[in-house]
Design brief:
The protein is an alpha+beta fold and 347 residues long. Helices cover 15% and strands 32% of the residues. Among the domains are: 99 residues, Immunoglobulins (Immunoglobulin-like); 77 residues, Immunoglobulins (Immunoglobulin-like). Strands 4-3-6-7 form a four-stranded antiparallel beta sheet, with no helix packed on it. It has a four-stranded antiparallel beta sheet with strand order 11-10-13-14, with no helix packed on it. A hairpin with a 2-residue loop joins strand 8 and strand 9. The longest helix is centred in the C-terminal third of the chain and has 24 residues. It is extended, with a radius of gyration of 49 Å. The termini are far apart.
């Protein structure tokens, strides 16, 4: 029995790294600190649609290389290479696929980590020693000194001719000024590298500025395109607010002098518990106000009068208990009706 996919199944890409992972141009046991090597990374697309994205190679927090990729559906293995300088001490490399369009649902193979490399110290070979051959005493010829008779002669010192020196402003000709002005002209600098300077405006907003090996005024004149994953911008300086928490990768693409493209990547972290997050402070203030209101209601409910706290008990009596009232009764035989005042008890 064979599996037949559903007719309404949505076509999707499936980008990933080959099982070979990250390969260096030199054997692992021959890496030397400070030398240049080539890093090779192989990708594939086993999905049913074409896909684009970015390949980023990192050494810890340092971004080593960034490359824009485009793989056709069902394409064979495609290899990318980068130039890399071996650092001092042990290191490893990580390759990631970012901002894949259309989105790659199978992200389990979208990153690969190399083993830990331990480069060797660079050894400078010493110059070989040339042995000195002994010289035979018989091969050395003795030369007799030659004595030249010196005639006595009176030597008069030569008279130096004094040449008047003109001031510098007069002595410098127009030709000298022209030569000096030519040497003062700065050399022409071509664009060969770009970078990103990220400055945080608030807890989720950053100000991104394009930098390069050119002066600042020339960098702003470059054609730059910014890719934030969900949105793209143009210009040499962009202010962008992120809507999601976590790490975000920002890629800038700049048109080079020969029609090529230069790339640079920056990583920013959006943390909800930042000190300048106004939403966090609003939640804290609401909690404080709610706690204060609850505490006030509890204290009011359990209020004890001051007399009870000091141990004094105030006894209250009703008017009937304090002032007894005698009611008129039927008189006895041969007696008259006596009435009593309720307060004085007098007839």
């Amino acid at each position: 029995m064979c599996f037949v996919p559903a007719a309404n199944a949505k076509p999707m890409p499936d980008l990933g790294f080959e099982s070979s992972g990250i390969i260096l141009s030199k054997p692992v046991d021959e890496l030397v600190k400070g030398e240049r090597v080539t890093v090779y990374v192989s990708l594939y697309n086993h999905g049913s649609v074409d896909a684009t994205g970015y390949l980023v190679v990192e050494q810890g927090p340092i971004i080593v290389a960034t490359e824009e990729i485009s793989l056709a559906a069902g394409s064979a293995r495609r290899q990318y290479s980068f130039s890399y300088t071996v650092p001092n001490g042990s290191f490893n490399l990580m390759a990631k696929l970012l901002q894949v369009v259309p989105a790659d649902k199978n992200s389990s193979d979208n990153q690969v980590l190399s083993p830990v490399f331990l480069p060797l110290e660079k050894v400078v070979p010493a110059a070989p020693l040339v042995p000195l051959l002994p010289i035979a005493a018989s091969s050395v010829k003795k030369v007799a000194p030659v004595v030249v008779p010196v005639k006595s002669k009176i030597i008069t010192p030569p008279v130096k001719k004094v040449i008047p020196v003109k001031p510098a402003s007069v002595a410098q000709s127009n030709h000298d000024k022209l030569v000096e002005s030519v040497y003062l002209i700065p050399a022409t600098v071509q664009l060969d590298s770009v970078g990103i300077t990220a400055r945080r405006v608030n807890w989720h907003t950053y100000d991104f500025l394009l930098t390069s090996n050119l002066p600042a005024t020339a960098s702003c004149a470059l054609t730059a395109s910014w890719d934030f994953g969900t949105e793209k911008r143009e210009g040499c300086q962009v202010i962008y607010s992120f809507s999601d928490l976590g790490n975000h990768y920002v890629v800038v693409k700049v048109l080079g002098p020969w029609g090529n493209y230069l790339y640079s990547t920056a990583k920013v972290n959006i943390n909800f518990f930042a000190w300048d997050n106004y939403w966090l402070w609003g939640i804290i203030m609401a909690f404080i106000i709610s706690y204060a209101g609850w505490k006030f209601r509890v204290r009011r409910k359990n209020f004890v009068p001051k007399e009870k706290k000091s141990g004094i008990i105030v006894k209250t009596e009703s008017i009937e208990t304090a002032w007894p009232v005698k009611v008129a009764t039927r008189p006895k035989k041969n007696s008259y009706l006596r009435t009593f005042h309720p307060r004085t008890c007098e007839s």
